[in-house]
């Protein structure tokens, strides 16, 4: 390490140093080193007492061993200043990358949401179509089906619908055959309960069990005559 008694003038970017100082450039390090200018390392030679240092000045400072010199070396490192152009450029690049990532993620969610919605709608439609088997139990749909099945099948297939209330002329479907309440009562009295006591009453009770809708038909209004067979 050369030493001169005259003041040293440093290269460009250095400060003027005294006779016992030296300054050298230090390149930045670390993950953000590209954003900084080079720093400086200042070497200061201080007199620490005879026999207390590790260097001895001659024409240059030479290492003479612990306890043999009169000077000690002090190193002062000053980090370089931030290069704002590089900082702004890096920030811009990171912002663009982040924006593209967010847009890509949103696009992915949009496509995934659309496909999931379509699948859900398909599943819901399939579930609705298969909620009830409206073709099973038609022989006794009026008395065997619960109210929910009647309403659903009526809305989707036309089965299980409640006929308009028209008294004894209300039509009831039983065993997949449609007939008015009065006709069913008369048929029961002249066939099922023929020549039995109270044939009309028995027929009326039977029809109410088969077709609850016939409650709107009073037996007196049904025109039942057990002695007048249907033609």
Q: Helicity, in percent?
A: 25-40%
Query: What structural class results from the helix and strand content?
Result: alpha+beta
Beta-strand percent range: 15-25%
Report the strand count.
7
Sequence of strands across the biggest β-sheet: 1-2-5
End-to-end distance: 137 Å
| Tally of helical runs | 5
Order of helices and strands: EEEEEHHHEEHH
Note down, in words, how this protein is organized:
This protein has 231 residues and is of the alpha+beta class. Helix content is 36%, strand content 16%. The strands form 3 sheets. It has a 3-stranded antiparallel beta sheet, with no helix packed on it. It has a two-stranded antiparallel sheet with strand order 3-4. Strand 3 and strand 4 form a beta hairpin.
Briefly summarize what is shown:
With about 230 residues, this protein is an alpha+beta fold.
Note the topology.
Layout: E1 21-26, E2 39-47, E3 55-57, E4 61-63, E5 71-78, H1 84-129, H2 141-144, H3 147-156, E6 171-174, E7 177-180, H4 181-192, H5 199-210
Antiparallel strand pairs: 1-2, 2-5, 3-4, 6-7
Helix pairs in contact: 4-5
Salient structural properties:
231 residues; alpha+beta; 5 helices; 7 strands; 16% strand; rod-shaped; disordered N terminus
């Amino acid at each position: 390490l050369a030493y001169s008694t005259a003041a040293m003038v440093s290269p460009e970017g250095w400060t003027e140093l005294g006779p016992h100082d030296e300054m050298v450039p230090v390149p930045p390090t670390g993950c953000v080193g590209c954003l900084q200018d080079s720093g400086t390392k200042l070497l200061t030679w201080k007199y620490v007492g005879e026999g207390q240092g590790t260097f001895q000045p001659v024409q240059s400072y030479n290492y003479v061993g612990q306890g043999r010199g009169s000077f000690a070396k002090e190193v002062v490192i000053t980090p370089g200043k931030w290069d704002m152009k590089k900082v702004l450029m890096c920030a811009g690049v990171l912002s663009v990358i982040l924006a593209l990532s967010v847009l890509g993620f949103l696009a992915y969610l949009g496509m995934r949401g659309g496909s999931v919605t379509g699948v859900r709608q398909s599943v819901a439609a399939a579930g609705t179509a298969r909620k009830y088997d409206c073709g099973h139990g038609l022989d006794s749909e009026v008395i065997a089906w619960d109210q929910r099945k009647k309403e659903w099948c009526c809305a989707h297939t036309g089965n299980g619908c409640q006929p308009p209330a028209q008294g004894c002329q209300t039509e009831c479907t039983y065993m997949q055959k449609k007939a008015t309440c009065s006709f069913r009562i008369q048929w029961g009295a002249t066939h099922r309960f023929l020549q039995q006591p109270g044939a009309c009453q028995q027929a009326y009770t039977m029809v109410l069990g088969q077709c609850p809708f016939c409650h709107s038909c009073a037996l007196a209004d049904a025109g039942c005559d057990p002695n007048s067979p249907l033609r």
